[in-house]
């Protein structure tokens, strides 16, 4: 290692050399933020010919990012269990979207229908039951499905409600008894997508056996972020999701776990604490693949309209801080003491009197 890099490595430690490149090839070190004394030119040394490679000082935006591997999936997974014993006679296809009024599955040719609502079906709704918000929820669905002629949507189960239930039962080929049991309906907040199915047609099931998993139709990316980096993941923050196809999709952080978990890490077999981060993405942009690998880029810091040089241009100077060698038009170099700032994509923000875009600097390892 030459004298230039020995000094830089000693100053930056493994933050740059050992872990500067993340999973997406992006540098993510905080070692260069605001270090060193206020920038000022050094006394101009005797000019000397330059034999090292050179790079250009550029001006633009510099983004410090963290790239984390994740998976594209669907939001709000839950398991639907049987509410009645019998034989499975009908099942949907995995990946199918089921909307209000459609059957999730059938037992003994009796469909169990999806209706929208937040209150689970926990009792039989029929004439004579005590009034309650679950009655109103049922009536709202009957109206949405076109069966609530003459029904006042409230929390009372009336004769009109019973007649509406019978019309709904006739439409679905069910026994027209005017009663709705937990074996007849599943109340969920919205339409669902069928995930893994746990049974087959012809299976005998009990009243609490898992039948199938369902999810929201919303697309979601999940990542496990190192716990010591959770400060870069804030709810509502925008991120970039790189799809396996190479396409970039915009996302927004919707949830950051409040409790860290510890698990074996596949990259180095060491245990590390992580927090799960959920990122919402557009269903149209994300496509239909489930459990597809993606890479999420989280922005740590952005510096706008700044001068930057390659990190290999930095020199550790004896009095502390960093310097660069600026090459003049005649090919001679002079050392300039610089103040460093943001760091990313292999470049570092530099500030010093007299520096300008287009100047050449020497770099090591080129």
TrEMBL record:
InterPro entries documented for this protein: Peptidoglycan-bd-like, PGBD-like_sf, PGBDSf
Protein name: Peptidoglycan-binding protein
Native organism taxonomy: Bacteria, Bacillati, Actinomycetota, Actinomycetes, Streptosporangiales
Domain Peptidoglycan binding-like span(s) in chain numbering: 131-183
Residue intervals passing through the bilayer: none
PANTHER family registered for this protein in UniProt: HLYD FAMILY OF SECRETION PROTEINS, MULTIDRUG RESISTANCE PROTEIN MDTA
Superkingdom of the organism of origin: Bacteria
């Amino acid at each position: 290692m030459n004298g230039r890099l020995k000094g830089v490595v000693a100053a930056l430690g493994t933050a740059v050399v050992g872990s500067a490149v993340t999973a997406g090839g992006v540098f993510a070190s905080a070692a260069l933020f605001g270090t060193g004394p206020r920038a000022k030119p050094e006394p101009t040394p005797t000019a000397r010919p330059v034999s090292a490679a050179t790079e250009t000082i550029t001006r633009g935006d510099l983004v410090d990012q963290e790239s984390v591997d994740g998976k594209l999936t669907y939001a709000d997974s839950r398991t639907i269990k049987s509410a009645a014993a019998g034989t499975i006679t009908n099942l949907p296809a995995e990946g199918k979207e089921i909307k209000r009024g459609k059957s999730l599955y059938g037992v003994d040719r009796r469909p169990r229908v999806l209706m929208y609502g937040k209150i689970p079906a926990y009792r039989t709704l029929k004439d004579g039951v005590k009034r309650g918000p679950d009655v109103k929820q049922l009536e709202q669905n009957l109206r949405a499905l076109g069966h609530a002629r003459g029904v006042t949507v409230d929390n009372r189960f009336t004769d009109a409600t019973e007649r509406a239930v019978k019309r709904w039962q006739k439409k679905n080929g069910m026994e027209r008894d005017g009663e709705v049991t937990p074996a007849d309906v599943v109340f969920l907040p919205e339409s669902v997508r069928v995930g893994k199915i746990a049974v087959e047609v012809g299976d005998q099931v009990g009243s609490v056996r898992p039948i199938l998993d369902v999810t929201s139709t919303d697309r979601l990316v999940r990542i496990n972020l190192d716990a010591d980096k959770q400060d870069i993941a804030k709810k509502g923050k925008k991120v970039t999701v790189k799809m396996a196809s190479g396409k970039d999709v915009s996302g927004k952080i919707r949830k950051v776990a409040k409790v860290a978990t510890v698990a074996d890490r596949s990259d180095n077999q060491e245990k590390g604490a992580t927090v799960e981060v959920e990122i919402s993405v557009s269903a149209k942009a994300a496509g239909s693949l489930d459990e597809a690998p993606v890479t999420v880029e989280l922005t740590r810091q952005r510096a706008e309209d700044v001068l930057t040089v390659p990190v290999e241009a930095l020199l550790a100077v004896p009095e502390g801080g960093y310097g660069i060698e600026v090459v003049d038009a005649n090919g001679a170099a002079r050392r300039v003491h610089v103040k460093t700032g943001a760091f990313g994509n292999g470049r570092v923000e530099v500030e010093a009197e007299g520096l300008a875009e287009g100047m050449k600097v020497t770099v090591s390892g080129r």
